[in-house]
Amino acid sequence: MGSKLSVDESVRVVIVGGGFAGIAAANQLKSHEIPFVLVDMKDCFHHNVGALRASVESGFAKKTLISYKDSYQDSFKQSKVIGINLETQNVVLESNEELHFSHLIIATGSVGPFPGKIAIITNRDAAIQMYEDLVTEVQKAKHVVVVGGGAAGVEMAAEVKTDYPEKEVTLIHSKVALADVELKPCVRSAIKEILLKKGVRLILGQKVANLNELTPNVVQDTMEIHLDKDPEVITADLLLCCTGININSSCYINVFGDKVASNGALKVNDFLQVDGYSNIYAVGDCADLKEPKMAYSAALHANIAVTNIINSLLGKPLKQYKTGPVTMLLSMGRNDGVGQFNGFYMGKMLVTKAKSRDIFVSKSWNNMGQKMPK
């Protein structure tokens, strides 16, 4: 825990976005008793690292959704941010309310398809029900097709096959190599071996030609899936989409001009300040950094941003953020996994113990000062 920092009444940090970076920043500010407001559209933090297991295991979803209000009380506001006024230093909410900031942390993250992300504005109970409904669909399905073979796709296929080994599972990926390009070849090879050993059929180097015509997450009899390079028609009854994510730039895309990169992320300096703005930080997925988009990195960003806010208030030098060797652990079902830590290969035993058993959900509950439900 941090020590209380004595600041004048003009200091108020606004955090836009309550993902892994947002809550890491909020927790650190709270520990130093620095006034802040966390703004998010949902009423709860979504530990989306565990979303794939919540899609196959009934009762797991409630462990992945953690109330903001219970952790931050009056320092949380549920709303959509529709704009940022740089001249007045106000964040504009959908209700037209404006929140004044002395420092701003933009942590809007990324958007993608359900079940990996929750795209719609919702509350905790509704979100839990969305996952419970999907569990029911997975249980009914005989042949599940997972589209996308990045980190989320390979984990999704492994989760389904682990809990329901009797089901037919096919993974379709547009590239030949699986998972993240930043991973060592031996890690990516191990991922492929695990999936094949579990009985997952792999269709690599091809796209689903009629993806826009298909309805995901709902069992449908004789769903026909067409490939872009192969005349074969795959017949399945459930489609799970784990395709790529996009930066959530809607609240700032029209504000920062050329400080927005082509992918929608914000250009930052070595201190994670948005270029040209000493009191505005971008952290997590929306920071334009050459590294994989991961919860692990997001928390590191938040730590740097809050440390630099504190240092700026105390007149101390700012701390640089330096990207290091890639750390990424992939849970391949609760009893298997593979990955790398600081660039070094990590095998089944270590990854299973570190991540696969509970997907870090207990850590998020502890970080937010709450007790995880059983």
What is the number of strand segments? Answer: 21
Overall body shape: globular
* Uncertain regions spanning at least 5 consecutive residues: none
Which class best fits the helix and strand makeup?
alpha/beta
Helix content: 25-40%
Distance between the termini: 26 Å
Specify Rg, calculated over alpha carbons. 21 Å
Number of helices: 9
**Largest β-sheet summary:** 5 strands, parallel
Percentage of residues in strands: 15-25%
How is this fold's topology laid out?
Elements: E1 13-16, H1 20-31, E2 36-40, E3 44-46, H2 51-54, E4 65-67, H3 68-72, E5 76-78, E6 81-85, E7 90-93, E8 98-100, E9 103-106, E10 110-111, H4 124-140, E11 143-147, H5 151-163, E12 168-173, H6 185-198, E13 201-204, E14 223-226, E15 233-236, E16 238-241, E17 246-247, E18 280-282, H7 295-314, E19 328-331, E20 337-341, E21 344-346, H8 348-356, H9 361-367
Parallel strand pairs: 1-2, 1-9, 2-5, 9-18, 11-12, 11-16, 12-13
Antiparallel strand pairs: 3-4, 6-7, 7-8, 10-17, 14-15, 19-20, 20-21
Helix pairs in contact: 1-7, 5-6
Kindly describe this structure.
The strands form seven sheets. This protein has a five-stranded parallel β-sheet with strand order 5-2-1-9-18. Strand 19 (328-331) and strand 20 (337-341) form a beta hairpin. Helices cover 27% and strands 21% of the residues. 44% of the residues are buried. Helix 1 (20-31) packs parallel to helix 7 and helix 5 runs parallel beside helix 6 (185-198). It has 374 residues and is of the alpha/beta class. It contains nine helices and 21 strands.
